């Protein structure tokens, strides 16, 4: 069984969908291959018993990329506001504009009155970063704007912006280091540092971490869930004449002969390949026999770097259907809520204590692991998304679905699974998280939960094929084997093999939905240009 296509795109997440849509629009004979029965990857909306939940990203940030991409492809989506609240113990503030930063700082000062000057210092940094963010995201990304054909736009808008953008890059570079030591320098109080930073990925670059207050204001939620963007892209691919095949997991790439094969032994020949899935998988399954020797050896060298890299942090998520109307939850927070039940902060619980647990796993009893889990759940920060507060149709009348997640270590769940108590562990996590929230802000969770279920880093690994269950590509704690410089993002899509481009969250760092989309577009542009040159 074999079929042949001009371009094959592997992976139907945001990056692959965008690449396939642009390629199809340019007239390429394109086939998108996705291993699951549904496309979307880490952007996926699902419904259970009338409750709509998000399996991946909870809401979207345009970042000067998503709306311009939709406009270029002719996608219209009904969008709803996605408002954010932040809370610690019984203090909760609501983000209504960038000026709400004042309220956030006031919340922190109420909790840590002895650290007022330090909190002001943090506020000054966040304000500076917000100014840079307005430059960075304040304009359509040039990849989605053919400014060369519009001279007035080029000279009047683009060029002046570009000079400010270059200055912004210099300022970002100065804040490229990890956020934890940066905060150590300006905030002495450990608990305060934790409360500000414990919901960031470990080692997040300072600029990226401190930009969150800007992003809170930039979020939007498609009516019907984030999965509506996936559906719209699928529709566009079909409309432009492209093809999508689901249930097709690629298990071998023969780069020399230019074909891939799937788990069922089906073979797909290609002119160009865009790999928009996990990068370790690409390097593991690719054979370079028949490739030019220089390309093959460059590929072998890059393979070592890629396989030595590690995926970023993952998440544990509890989904709860609650027999309580959305109004009750609306009186507490907006529909996207970052909540920490204790001002004490995680301290060493998720660092030294966790390391000790993992290093000497065999000598720790299950009771000791659960005792660690108690402390971890009590002191942690939760990202709580409440779809019904954004879109009333997201839950049955008078009821509310909650998506409660926290950053979680892949290695720990893996050890639990190997020790044979994974399902018990998930139930223990569910119980602890619901108890902690019932004792703090949501007393109704004691007796009004209709059903509850959870997903772990292992779920993300299985569903998206994501190494180490990572939700945003590479870990910041290890050497990153791909491009991490904004001005070099065009290089991010190149692999050492001329007919294979890469796209998505593993192709560039730091990343997320907008960068997955951007690299998908850049990969499509490169293939289109290559085919034009080659007469394809
Ligand atoms: C809980 C959560 C919260 C998040 N929050 C944010 C946020 O606030 N902001 C933000 O920007 N980003 C966020 N992200 C990250 C964001 O969702 C991802 O970075 C982005 O969606 C990645 O898109 P992608 O196309 O690169 O990869 P993926 O979505 O991983 O898509 C890869 C696709 O390839 C398929 N695939 C894998 N292997 C194969 C194979 N061998 N053959 C065929 N198909 C294969 C997978 O099934 C998948 O569909 C979050 C993610 C999660 C899970």
Roughly what percent helix?
40-55%
CATH superfamily of the largest domain: FAD/NAD(P)-binding domain
Q: Give a list of the ligands.
A: flavin-adenine dinucleotide
Helical segment count: 20
The first-to-last residue Cα distance is 24 Å
Strand content: 15-25%
Structural class by helix and strand composition: alpha/beta
- Tell me the name of the CATH class of the largest domain: Alpha Beta
**On the 0-100 scale, what is the average pLDDT?**
94
Give the CATH architecture of the largest domain: 3-Layer(bba) Sandwich
User: Which regions are unreliable across 5 or more consecutive residues at pLDDT < 50?
Assistant: none
CATH topology label of the largest domain: FAD/NAD(P)-binding domain
| Cα-atom radius of gyration | 23 Å
Please, how many domains?
3
Largest sheet: 8 strands, mixed
Q: Which word captures the global form?
A: globular
Explain how this protein is built.
The protein has 536 residues and is α/β, with parallel strands linked by helices. The protein folds into 3 domains: 2-46 and 226-309 and 476-534, FAD/NAD(P)-binding domain (3-Layer(bba) Sandwich); 97-220, no CATH class; 313-464, no CATH class. The chain is built from 20 helices and 20 strands. Strands 1, 2, 10, 11, 12, 13, 14 and 20 form an 8-stranded mixed sheet that branches. Helix 1 (14-25) links the parallel strand 1 (2-10) and strand 2. Helix 3 (101-111) packs antiparallel against helix 4 (116-137). It is globular, with a radius of gyration of 23 Å.
């Amino acid at each position: 069984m074999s079929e042949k296509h001009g371009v094959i795109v592997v992976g139907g997440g945001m990056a692959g969908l965008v690449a396939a849509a642009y390629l199809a629009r340019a007239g390429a004979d394109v086939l998108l291959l996705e291993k699951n029965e549904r496309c979307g990857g880490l952007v996926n909306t699902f419904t259970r018993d009338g409750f709509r939940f998000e399996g991946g990203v909870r809401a979207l940030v345009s970042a000067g990329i998503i709306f311009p991409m939709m406009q270029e492809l002719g996608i219209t989506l009904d969008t709803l506001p996605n408002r954010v609240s932040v809370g610690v113990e019984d203090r909760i503030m609501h983000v209504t504009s960038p000026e709400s930063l004042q309220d956030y700082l006031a919340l922190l000062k109420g909790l840590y009155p002895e650290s007022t000057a330090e909190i002001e210092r943090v506020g000054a940094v966040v304000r500076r970063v917000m100014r840079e963010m307005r430059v960075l995201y304040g304009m359509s990304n040039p990849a989605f704007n053919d400014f060369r054909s519009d001279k007035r736009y080029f000279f009047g808008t683009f060029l002046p912006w570009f000079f400010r953008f270059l200055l912004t890059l210099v300022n970002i570079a100065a804040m490229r280091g990890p956020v934890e030591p940066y905060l150590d320098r300006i905030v002495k109080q450990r608990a305060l540092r934790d409360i500000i930073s414990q919901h960031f990925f470990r080692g997040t670059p300072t600029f990226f971490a401190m930009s969150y207050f800007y992003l809170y204001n930039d979020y939007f939620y498609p009516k019907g869930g984030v999965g509506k963007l996936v559906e719209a892209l699928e529709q566009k691919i079909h409309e432009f004449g492209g093809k999508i095949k689901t249930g097709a997991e690629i298990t071998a790439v023969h780069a020399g002969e230019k074909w891939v094969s799937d788990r069922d032994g089906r073979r797909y020949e290609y002119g160009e390949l865009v790999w928009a899935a996990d990068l370790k998988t690409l390097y593991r399954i690719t054979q370079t026999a028949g490739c030019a020797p220089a390309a093959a050896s460059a590929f072998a060298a890059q393979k070592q770097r890629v396989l030595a890299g590690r995926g970023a942090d993952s998440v544990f998520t509890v989904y709860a259907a609650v027999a309580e109307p959305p109004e009750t939850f609306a009186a507490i927070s907006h529909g996207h809520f970052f909540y920490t039940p204790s001002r004490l902060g995680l301290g060493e619980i998720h660092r030294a204590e966790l390391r000790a647990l993992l290093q000497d796993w065999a000598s720790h009893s299950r009771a000791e692991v659960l005792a660690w889990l108690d402390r971890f759940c009590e002191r942690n920060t939760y990202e709580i998304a409440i779809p019904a507060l954004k879109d009333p149709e997201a839950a049955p009348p008078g009821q509310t679905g909650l998506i409660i997640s926290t950053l979680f270590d892949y290695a720990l769940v893996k050890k639990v699974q190997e020790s044979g108590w994974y399902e018990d562990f998930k139930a223990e996590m569910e119980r602890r998280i619901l108890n902690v929230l019932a004792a703090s802000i949501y007393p109704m969770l004691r007796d009004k939960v209709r059903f509850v279920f959870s997903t772990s880093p292992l779920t993300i690994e299985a569903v998206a094929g994501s190494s180490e269950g990572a939700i945003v590509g590479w870990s910041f704690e290890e050497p990153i084997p791909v491009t991490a410089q904004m001005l070099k993002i065009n290089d991010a899509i190149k692999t050492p093999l001329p007919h294979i481009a890469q796209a998505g969250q593993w192709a560039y760092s730091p990343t997320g939905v907008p960068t997955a989309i951007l690299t998908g577009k850049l990969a499509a542009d490169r293939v289109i240009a290559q085919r034009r040159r080659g007469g394809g």
